[in-house]
Amino acid sequence: MPDEVWEQFVRDSERDIRTSGAPKEPSARARMVTERLRQQEARGELPQGWRAMPDGQRAGGRRDRRRKVWTAVAVVLAAAVAVVAMKPSLLPGDPFGTDSAAGSGADSGTGADAGSRSAAPLPAETAPETAAPGAVPGTPTLDDPFAGSPAARYADGAAGIVLPRAKAVGVFSKDQVARALEQSRTLLVESNIDRGTLLGATPEAVFDEVLDPRQPELVEDLRSWLREPGEDRDPLRMFSRFDPDEVRLVGDVVRTRGRTTFEEGRDGALEIHTDYTFVYALAPADPDATEVARTIVRRVIDLRMGDPAKYRATPGRLAVVSYDDDIGNSACFTHDGFLHPGLAWSDATGAPPSGPAVDPYDRSRDIGGDSEPDACGTVSRT
Fold it and tell me: So which domain of life are we looking at (predicted)?
C-alpha cells in the first residue's frame, strides 16, 4: 500500500472516530479490522478505489435530509415575512398600528356596500359606549350607501345582534334563558331587519313566537296599529316600516349595532334589556333616481319572562316591560305608520324639525328621558 494512501486512510478513520463521539484511542477490534483491510489491500482482494467514497455519501443521508428540511422551513419563513411586510395588519392585534383606516368609519364587505368597507368592522358592543363616533368622510351613493356614516363599520343585519352567553337565572335553567335570548333576537330581527316588515308587512313571528298573548293590551294594540295607524296608534313605536310607493331600500342589508344584557328580576323573573341602532339606506321609489338618504332608528326594549307560578304569564313567552325609540331623519308628526326619510324630492307634509341637533349615532347618550313630549329634533348627520 503506498504510504500516502495509508496516511489518508488513517486520517479518515481518526476523523470519523472523533465525530462519532467514540473514544479517541481506537479499540482493539478497530485495530484488527484496520490490519485485516491493509492485508486484503496488499493481496489485491479489495476493489479499486474503495476509499474514494464521496464525502456526502460517507456522512450518510441524514444530514442531507436535515439540510433539505431547514431549507424548506427557511422558504416558508421568507414567504411569511414577505406577506406580513405587504400587509402587517394580518398579525393579531395589529402590533405595528397599521390599521389606520380603523377609525375612518369604513369597513370591509362585498356587493353594493364594498366601497364603504375599507376598514375592519367594529367589534361587538359589550358595554355602553362612552362617546359619539368621529366624523366619517364620504357621500352615500347607490353603490356605496353607507359612505360617510359610522354605520359603514356596523355589522350586517342580524349579525349585529350578538347575544350574551346564557346561564341559569332565578327559576329558569340555562336552556330556558338561552331560548328567551333567542326570542329577543327574533323580536328585533322581525321588527327592524326583515325585508317584508320594512316594506309594510305584519311581522307574524313576533306575535306567534315571542310576545306573551296574556299581555293582551300590547299584543292587540300592536296588531290594531299595524292595520290602522294614527296619531295615538303608531306602529313605529315597535316596528320599522317604509312606504314602498315612496322609497326603496338600497342594497340588501340593514346596518346594526347594540347589545343585549340580562339579569334576575323580582320573584325569580328573567329580565332582558336590549339597546340597538338600525341604519337604513334608502332611495326614491323611482328606479331611475340616484339620490340616497339614511334613516337611523335606535330602540331600547325591556322584556321579561316571568315565573307562571307568580306572574300572569304564558310559559316560554316574553312580556314587554317598556319600549322607547329615537328616530333620526324622518318627517315629524306624520301618522301613517311609515318612516319618511328626508330626500330632496320629497314633498312630505310633516312639521319642520326644531330643537337642538343630536347625533343619531351617539350611543353613549340615553334616549327618551330628556326629550320634550311633542319635540321634533334635528339630527347633526345621517
Answer: Bacteria
